[in-house]
């Protein structure tokens, strides 16, 4: 899985913070939700993202 397909950095979107591609959902917000025990299903429903978007946030899943 190539993280470039799911993650973007654009200075014109969310002040250049790392976001899920095609959204204004900031990666750090998703990671914070995971850290406090929020379920993937709840995050997917709340932020309208797909499982692959969450899965790719784990560095062990990155390819270049």
Secondary-structure element order, N to C: EEHHH
Query: Which stretches are low in confidence, meaning pLDDT under 50 for 5 or more residues running?
Result: none
Average of the residue pLDDT scores: 90
Q: State the share of residues found in helices, binned by percent.
A: 25-40%
Distance between the termini: 9 Å
Number of helical regions: 3
Q: Topology of this protein?
A:
Elements: E1 7-8, E2 19-20, H1 27-35, H2 40-47, H3 51-55
Antiparallel strand pairs: 1-2
Task: Explain how this protein is built.
The protein has 64 residues and is mainly alpha-helical. It has a single domain, classed as Winged helix-like DNA-binding domain superfamily/Winged helix DNA-binding domain (Arc Repressor Mutant, subunit A, Orthogonal Bundle), CATH 1.10.10.10. It has three helices and two strands. The protein has helices spanning 27-35, 40-47, 51-55; strands spanning 7-8, 19-20. A two-stranded antiparallel ribbon has the order 1-2. The longest helix has 9 residues, at 27-35. The chain starts with 6 loop residues before the first strand and ends in a 9-residue tail after the last helix. The model has no long low-confidence stretch (mean pLDDT 90).
Please tag this protein with its features.
64 residues, mainly alpha, Arc Repressor Mutant, subunit A, two-stranded antiparallel ribbon, 2 strands
Outline:
By secondary structure, the chain is mainly alpha-helical.
């Amino acid at each position: 899985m190539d993280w470039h397909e799911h993650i973007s950095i654009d200075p014109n979107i969310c002040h250049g913070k790392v976001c899920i591609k095609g959204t204004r959902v900031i990666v750090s917000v998703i990671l914070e939700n995971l850290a406090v025990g929020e379920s993937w299903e709840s995050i997917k429903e709340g932020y309208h993202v797909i499982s692959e978007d969450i899965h790719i946030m784990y560095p062990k899943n990155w390819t270049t």
